[in-house]
Write a structure and sequence with these properties.
The protein has a five-stranded antiparallel beta sheet, with no helix packed on it. A four-stranded antiparallel beta sheet has the order 6-7-8-9, with no helix packed on it. It has a two-stranded antiparallel sheet with strand order 1-2. It has three helices and eleven strands, in the order H-E-E-H-E-E-E-E-E-E-E-E-E-H. The protein is mainly beta.
């Protein structure tokens, strides 16, 4: 494909993906990258890695088992939780990976749910707002927000020094960074 076509396709308002006969992507324009979250503009940058024991994990899931990679109660054991959470319930969690923490879950009966915890003088908060269609995770005044249409599973990981190690942004499913994948030892990028 010539450079003049690449430029032309990148100025389109529509997302464009060109796939060959083997279903391999040959071209994806910038609008499609934005739609799928492949060209993230992270407000708070993070490196690549994995969740490790002792990392602080914060989760806000609007509908357990839906847009979180198919999360189920067995996946929560790595967080130190042995409780059952039903598919479709909201789920909030703040704690240390492998060591347990505080959580809240249940049927969605309200417009918003919040969970807040102080760990070593660090204020951690997660809130689901169904009216504004967003999940907000706050770490010491740093806001990491993820909007949703139907549902979303949002996760933030902090290292032992409370530095942001990972947070989800648009396109996490395409990148293989769902909550289920990350809790099951997958890497984030």
């Amino acid at each position: 494909m010539g450079l003049e076509y690449v430029y032309l396709f990148d100025i389109l308002d529509e997302g464009l993906i060109v796939v060959d006969e083997k279903q391999k992507i040959q071209f994806i324009n910038n609008r499609a990258k934005d739609i799928f979250g492949l060209r993230n503009k992270y407000i708070l940058p993070h490196g690549s890695g994995k969740i490790e024991e002792g990392d602080i994990v914060i989760i806000g899931d609007t509908s357990f088992g839906d847009d979180d990679g198919g999360l189920d109660s067995k996946d929560l054991k790595v967080l130190g939780l042995h409780n059952n959470v039903n598919k479709g319930d909201y789920f909030l969690y703040i704690g240390k990976f492998g060591k347990g923490g505080e959580f809240s879950s249940g049927k969605v009966l309200s417009a918003s749910y919040k969970l807040e915890k102080n760990i070593e003088e660090n204020n951690l908060k997660v809130e689901i707002d169904y009216n504004q269609k967003k999940v907000v995770i706050i770490v010491n005044e740093k806001f990491m927000e993820l909007e949703f249409i139907k549902s979303v599973g949002h996760i933030v990981v902090l290292d032992k020094n409370f530095n942001i190690k990972f947070y989800q942004a648009k396109g996490y499913t395409v990148r293989g960074e769902t909550i289920k994948e990350l809790l099951n030892d997958n890497s984030f990028y």
